[in-house]
Design brief:
Two copies of one chain form a homodimer.
Chain A (H helix, E strand, L loop, with lengths): L10 E5 L2 E4 L4 E4 L2 E2 H7 L2 H10 L5 H13 L5 H9 L6 H12 L10 H22 L13 H10 L5 H13 L7 H10 L5 H12 L9 H10 L2 H13 L17 H13 L4 H20 L9 H11 L7 H22 L7 E4 L7
Antiparallel strand pairs in A: 2-3, 3-4
Chain lengths: 364, 364
């Protein structure tokens, strides 16, 4: 068999979890359009959908939310480990280490939904605990009266977030929970295929998402918006970039050959929010100008807005500092990873591909 | 493209590092027979070979050993994290977490040999530090006058190991450093393909090796030898297992369809050691009886001794407790993982396979 670099086009699993159709611009989670879920549902409802295969009814949702709330608190030794972690350790490394540190003898195989809920509930607490510590602020206990998204923002900032900010972050988190067999989801499945435990699989996936080719560098988009600053400045700034042959960050995607459905949904959210915050209006205006000028400078090349553009716009719009963009991606994608691990366990076979030796041979 | 379960037979990389030929029973490291290296070389020499592509000359070896020695010491915060880790956290989880915790801002992409040496040098110290702590003993500082293998045994036991034990463990470690595109090596490559850092890739690989389908349960072989106990007891014990339709642990392998070259080399080492320790003689006698009786009970099925049989015999023979068998596998396999990560970085392309969605579709 010839070598398949990067396994492009190789199907490694059948899945009931999600469909990514880049030609049509479709993103489906368990029979539902992701973009509709993002606009109409909460983090908890969509996590439930991805894990249990159906949307919860009212009493299922209440019980599920209670369990998530109960699991938010970090064990004391995890807090102390975060405190011990030197300042030159970046947030993604902290998340990877602490997810790993949560694992113990009680984690077996196959992974259980209780373990999944426990790790998912703790990730925002890990990030917020570390974030406040390195900023010289006292870490805050989670607040049981707030939902997952609102509590995350509260633990970071110490103030109760606005409904608009909760809604914007909820939409972002829902839209980035699941995206087919990407590198981190695949990593989780490969680790899980050895019958290793959930802490191993999820911490490995965090490590994969840390790579700039995957978790991306969304701060580049927010840097661009910051540099542009005003509507008037948009066209001259973009023209000058394109004249210099520079890329515009946030446009084009390996998978989507049409409008990225996640960008589409986040654009709807940004439109609503622009009444409350002019930053969202700027983001929408800059997007329009970028697309116009890309069509002018690169005629015939179909380049569309990707999720990073609006992800950055939304995350910046709710005042999240850029060093929290990729860690916040973990807050959502852990849902997809876990769904895939549960599914992988049902039909498990260890991943053991081949390599071709092209080195020297010894004399026989 | 049809689904390839477990990626069996799919070639994902060309490599100069190692060749596993299961039909012929060949294992080659960079142009050398692994079984010859195991009998004639040390851990340091073979690690150098796998990383630098050639065996070191005398002065290269001296310098390399100095660098490894210098990097053995754990940072204070890692020691404290190990102390904080609750008792119900198994050794593989501790190694996974502490390798992750070593990572910081200075780890970039591509991975460097300095980073590789630093992590490889610290793994035995992590294991020994934890091992002595949970056994109520004071952890020991590494001893700079001992080589990698001898120092590992010294840090575990507090006594200077015999030459026979050093030699047996060296052979085991050399033979398990590298084995083609197995699940943990593949995990390391997938994580590294996102341009993530070495701490991410190696801790992910530790997590994959933790899975019983991969890192195995070599303690089952040593349990068998313990139950048999004496030569006289071997035949009746084995017959009774085979009559009950039970498997004999340590025989048969997914890849090798002939004598596993690693078992072959370890058998030579065990033979030498049997003069000094009757346990090795028992192990060789039980192997012979198992093969005889397997031929009698399963005629026509070619079943050969695999590496786990002699790995368990050797590790038990040097008095390593079974809970350290898989962690000790990390001490060796980290060399192969790192060699693959350096190679992957040279021709990198992100691993992003496909999945086929078989769930419901929403109405358009």
């Amino acid at each position: 068999m010839p070598m398949v670099t990067g396994l492009e086009g190789v199907v490694v699993a059948e899945t009931n979890i999600g469909l990514v159709d880049g030609e049509k611009g479709h993103l489906v989670y368990r029979g539902h359009w992701a973009k509709e879920l993002a606009i109409t549902k909460t983090y908890e409802e969509v996590a439930y959908l991805l894990w249990y295969g159906k949307l919860p009814d009212q009493s299922e949702l209440e019980q599920f939310k209670k369990q998530l709330v109960k699991e938010r608190e970090l064990p004391e030794y995890i807090k102390k480990m975060i405190e011990l972690t030197p300042e030159n350790v970046d947030m993604m490394s902290v998340v990877r280490t602490m997810v790993s540190a949560i694992g113990n003898d009680s984690f077996g195989w196959p992974p259980t939904l209780d373990e999944v809920i426990s790790i998912t509930a703790k990730i925002p607490t890990i990030i917020a605990y570390r974030y406040r510590l390195i900023n010289g602020q006292k870490p805050l206990d989670p607040r049981s009266d707030l939902n997952h998204t609102a509590n995350y923002l509260y633990m970071l900032t110490g103030t109760e977030p606005s409904t608009a900010h909760i809604r914007a972050l909820d939409a972002y988190l829902i839209l980035t929970m699941e995206h087919g067999m990407n590198a981190s989801t695949f990593t989780a499945r490969v680790v899980g295929s050895t019958r290793s435990d959930l802490a191993s699989s999820i911490s490995a996936a965090v490590g994969a998402l840390k790579g700039p080719l995957h978790g991306g560098a969304p701060s580049e988009v927010s840097d661009m918006l910051e540099q542009i600053g005003t509507k008037e400045n948009a066209e001259p700034w973009i023209r000058s970039q394109l004249e210099k042959g520079e890329l515009l960050m946030g446009f084009g995607h390996r998978v989507y050959k049409t409008y990225d459905p996640r960008a589409e949904a986040l654009s709807v959210v940004a439109e609503e929010l622009s009444k409350e915050d002019p930053y969202f209006e700027l983001a929408r205006y800059v997007e329009k100008k970028c697309l116009e000028l890309l069509a002018e400078y690169k005629p015939g090349r179909k380049i569309y807005t990707n999720v990073e553009y609006y992800a950055a716009a939304v995350l910046k719009g709710i005042n999240l500092p850029p060093q929290l963009f990729t860690p916040t991606f973990v807050v959502s994608r852990v849902v997809g990873w876990s769904a895939h691990l549960i599914e992988q366990a049902e039909v498990n076979r260890i991943f053991r591909p081949q390599s071709t030796y092209v080195g020297e041979l010894p004399a026989e």
